[in-house]
C-alpha cells in the first residue's frame, strides 16, 4: 500500500508539471519575464519534488545492519537538496531580471491576458498543492509544502507585475521578478538552515527541556550522568544514564526506569527511550561502604560490629569478620591484613584498623517432630486460654542444639498490646513447665 506521504508528493508533482506547460507557453507568448521566471521556478520545483518522492520512499525502509536507526535521515537530506535547488532558482531569476531591466525589455501588452490567465491557473494549482500537502506531518512533505507556498507567493508577485505593466508601468514585470528572487532566496536559506541543524543531530530544545523536567520530578533519581537526544524525521531517540541510590534493588530500579519511559511517551510523540541506571555510592554510610568493601573478598563469609571512633590521633576502626572455621590462622591473618590495606587505601581518614577474626557459624541441621501426643498437649494449653480465639498453626522441630515450638494464634483485635504480651508470657511459662526446655515463639494475629 502506498504511503500517504508518497501519495501527497506524487499529486504535487503532477500538478507542477501542468503549471510548467501553461506558464512557459504563456510567458513566451507574452514575453513576460515574471511568468517565465515563475515557470522556471516550477521546473526546478518539479525536479525537487521528484527527488523528495524518491527520498521519502527510501526513508520508509525498515532499519537494517547499516542503518540501525532506520532511513529517516534521508528526509532532511532530501529537504536540504530542495532548499539548495530553490536557492539556485532565486539567484538565476535575480540575474535574468537585472539583465532584462538594463536592456529595457518589456511585456507584449496584446498578449498580457494570456499571461494573466496562465498565472491565475498556476495560483489555483498552488492552492491545491498546499491543501494536499498540509495533511502530512512529515518534514519532507512540509518542505514541499513550503515550495508550494513559495510558488503561490511568487505567482501573486508575477500577477501584480504583469497587471502593472499592462496598465503602463513597463518595468514592473522585471521588478516583480527581482522581488520574487529575493523572497525565494530567503525561504531557501531558512529551509537549508533548519535541515542542516537536524542533520547535525542538534537536540530539539523544547523536547529536551521536557525530559529534564520529568527527571526532576521522579522520586529516587539523584541525577543524570548523561542525557542524549536526537531527532530523525518525526521520530525522537532518547538515551540516558540515571543515578539511583545504591540501596535500591534491581527490581525497583527497573520500575523507576519504566515510570520515566511512560512519562516521556505521554509528553512526546514518536519517541524511543533507552535508560541505563547506575548506583550512587555516596548514598551509602561509612559502615555500609566498609561492609561492601570487605565482602568483596570471597573468603569473608560475613562482617559485623563495624565501629569508627574519633580520637586525638584520628579515627580508629574495629570490625569483626567471619571466615571458614577450619581455615588456618596464617591464611586468616593474611586476609585480615589485606582488608586493613584496602580500607586504608579507600578511606585515608581512618588512622588505624583492627580486624577481629571469627569462625562463620554453620546453619543448624534440624528436623520436624511429628508427635501427635506432644501436639495435643500444646493445643490443650492454648485452648485453656480464654483470650486465644483461634489457633492457625503449631509446629515442633529440633536441631543439634535446641528444640523449638512455633505457634501462630489469634487474639481479639481490640485487645491492648500489653495484655497480649502478658497472655503470651503466661502461655509460654505453662508450656515450659509442661513440655520441658523448648525455645517457644508465639506469633499473635488480630481476629
Quick tags:
12 helices, 4-stranded mixed β-sheet, Alpha-Beta Plaits, Alpha-lytic protease prodomain-like, 447 residues, alpha/beta, 4 domains
Layout of SSEs?
Elements: H1 4-30, H2 33-59, H3 74-103, H4 112-133, H5 139-166, H6 172-199, H7 205-216, E1 223-232, E2 235-245, H8 250-267, E3 271-280, H9 286-294, E4 302-311, E5 314-323, H10 329-346, E6 350-359, E7 366-368, H11 372-383, E8 390-399, E9 403-411, H12 417-435, E10 439-446
Parallel strand pairs: 2-3, 5-6, 9-10
Antiparallel strand pairs: 1-2, 4-5, 7-8, 8-9
Verbal overview:
The chain has 447 residues and is an alpha/beta fold. It folds into four domains: 4-199, Cation efflux protein transmembrane domain (Alpha-lytic protease prodomain-like); 218-281, Alpha-Beta Plaits (2-Layer Sandwich); 286-359, Alpha-Beta Plaits (2-Layer Sandwich), CATH 3.30.70.1350; 366-446, Cation efflux protein, cytoplasmic domain (Alpha-Beta Plaits, 2-Layer Sandwich), CATH 3.30.70.1350. The protein has twelve helices and ten strands. It has helices at residues 4-30, 33-59, 74-103, 112-133, 139-166, 172-199, 205-216, 250-267, 286-294, 329-346, 372-383, 417-435, and strands at residues 223-232, 235-245, 271-280, 302-311, 314-323, 350-359, 366-368, 390-399, 403-411, 439-446. Strands 7-8-9-10 form a four-stranded mixed β-sheet, covered by helices on one side. A three-stranded mixed β-sheet has the order 1-2-3, covered by helices on one side. Helix 2 (33-59) runs antiparallel to helix 5 and helix 11 packs antiparallel against helix 12 (417-435). 28% of the residues are buried. The model has no long low-confidence stretch (mean pLDDT 79).
Amino acid at each position: 500500500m502506498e504511503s500517504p506521504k508518497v501519495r501527497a508528493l506524487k499529486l504535487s508533482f503532477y500538478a507542477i508539471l501542468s503549471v510548467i506547460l501553461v506558464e512557459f507557453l504563456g510567458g513566451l507568448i507574452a514575453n513576460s519575464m515574471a511568468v517565465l521566471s515563475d515557470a522556471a521556478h516550477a521546473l526546478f520545483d518539479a525536479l525537487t519534488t521528484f527527488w523528495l518522492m524518491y527520498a521519502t520512499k527510501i526513508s520508509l525502509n525498515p532499519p537494517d545492519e547499516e542503518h540501525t536507526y532506520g532511513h529517516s535521515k534521508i528526509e532532511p537530506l532530501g529537504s536540504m537538496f530542495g532548499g539548495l535547488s530553490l536557492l539556485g532558482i532565486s539567484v538565476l531569476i535575480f540575474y535574468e531580471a537585472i539583465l532584462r531591466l538594463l536592456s529595457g525589455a518589456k511585456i507584449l501588452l496584446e498578449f498580457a491576458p494570456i499571461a494573466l490567465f496562465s498565472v491565475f491557473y498556476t495560483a489555483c494549482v498552488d492552492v491545491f498543492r498546499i491543501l494536499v500537502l498540509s495533511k502530512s506531518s512529515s518534514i519532507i512533505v512540509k518542505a514541499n509544502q513550503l515550495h508550494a507556498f513559495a510558488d503561490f507567493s511568487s505567482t501573486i508577485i508575477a500577477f501584480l507585475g504583469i497587471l502593472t505593466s499592462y496598465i503602463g508601468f513597463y518595468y514592473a514585470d522585471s521588478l516583480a521578478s527581482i522581488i520574487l528572487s529575493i523572497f525565494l532566496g530567503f525561504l531557501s536559506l531558512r529551509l537549508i538552515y533548519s535541515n542542516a541543524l537536524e542533520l547535525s543531530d542538534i537536540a530539539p530544545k523544547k523536547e529536551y527541556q521536557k525530559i529534564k523536567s520529568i527527571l526532576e520530578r521522579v522520586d529516587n533519581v539523584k541525577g543524570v550522568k548523561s542525557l542524549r537526544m536526537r531527532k530523525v524525521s518525526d521520530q525522537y531517540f532518547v538515551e540516558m544514564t540515571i543515578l539511583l541510590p545504591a540501596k535500591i534493588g534491581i527490581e525497583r530500579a527497573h520500575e523507576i526506569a519504566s515510570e520515566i519511559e511512560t512519562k516521556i511517551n505521554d509528553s512526546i510523540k514518536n519517541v524511543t527511550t533507552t535508560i541505563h541506571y547506575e548506583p550512587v555510592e555516596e548514598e551509602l554510610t561509612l559502615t555500609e561502604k566498609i561492609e561492601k568493601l570487605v565482602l568483596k573478598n570471597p573468603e569473608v563469609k560475613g562482617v559485623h560490629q563495624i565501629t569508627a571512633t574519633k580520637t586525638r590521633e584520628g579515627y580508629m576502626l574495629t570490625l569483626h569478620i567471619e571466615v571458614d572455621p577450619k581455615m588456618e590462622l596464617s591464611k586468616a591473618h593474611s586476609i585480615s591484613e589485606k582488608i586493613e590495606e584496602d580500607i586504608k587505601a579507600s578511606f585515608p581518614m581512618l588512622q588505624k584498623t583492627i580486624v577481629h577474626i571469627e569462625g562463620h557459624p554453620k546453619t543448624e541441621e534440624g528436623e520436624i517432630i511429628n508427635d501427635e501426643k506432644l501436639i495435643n498437649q500444646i493445643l490443650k494449653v492454648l485452648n485453656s486460654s480464654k483470650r486465644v480465639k483461634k489457633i492457625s498453626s503449631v509446629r515442633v522441630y529440633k536441631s543439634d542444639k535446641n528444640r523449638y515450638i512455633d505457634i501462630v494464634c489469634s487474639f481479639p483485635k481490640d485487645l491492648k498490646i500489653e495484655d497480649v504480651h502478658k497472655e503470651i508470657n503466661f502461655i509460654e511459662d505453662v508450656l515450659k513447665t509442661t513440655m520441658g526446655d523448648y525455645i517457644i515463639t508465639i506469633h499473635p494475629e488480630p481476629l
